[in-house]
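Researcher: Let's do a round of design. I'm pasting the structure tokens now; please hold your answer until I've finished.
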């Protein structure tokens, strides 16, 4: 990312529009923290056949955290102090699904990504995004669709 790709995006937004932006970006940032930790905690040597896919998904979700952390600061906002709750939720879902084995991991992935896709569809229309921000949200939404389809395919094969 170059300096020219970073912009102050809050100028000219009304209080009510800023509230919409704040709510949506906090939701996206928190959910990506949860998703990253779910995959991180699902990675295990005892399931080598899933390891590559889980590491790739984790990296992808880390990129989404980065996307929305940058957007938060561009809009003059900060992450919420209680984001550790989402970190914990991710840890719990990831760890317990790992104990449940391959199918539990895949079902947890499908549950998470179905929610993510629905959230993204809502949040894409929840605030008056400028074009670059809308493009980031749309790109990340498509990543979630890819994850969802991958976990569904792998579950069907089992
Ligand atoms: Fe994500
Ligand atoms: Fe995802």
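Researcher: That's everything. Go ahead.
Model: Designed sequence:
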């Amino acid at each position: 990312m170059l300096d020219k790709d970073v912009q102050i995006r809050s100028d000219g937004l009304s209080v009510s529009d800023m509230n919409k932006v704040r709510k949506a970006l906090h939701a996206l940032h928190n959910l990506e923290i949860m998703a990253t930790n779910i995959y991180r905690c699902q990675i295990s040597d005892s399931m080598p056949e899933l390891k590559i896919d889980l590491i790739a998904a984790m990296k992808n979700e880390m990129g989404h955290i980065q996307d929305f952390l940058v957007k938060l600061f561009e809009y003059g906002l900060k992450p919420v102090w209680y984001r550790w709750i989402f970190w914990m939720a991710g840890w719990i879902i990831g760890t317990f699904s790992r104990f449940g084995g391959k199918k539990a991991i895949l079902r947890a992935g499908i549950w998470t990504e179905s929610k993510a896709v629905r959230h993204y569809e809502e949040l894409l229309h929840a605030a008056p995004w400028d074009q670059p921000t809308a493009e980031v949200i749309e790109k990340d939404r498509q990543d979630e669709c890819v994850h969802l389809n991958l976990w569904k395919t792998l579950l069907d094969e089992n």
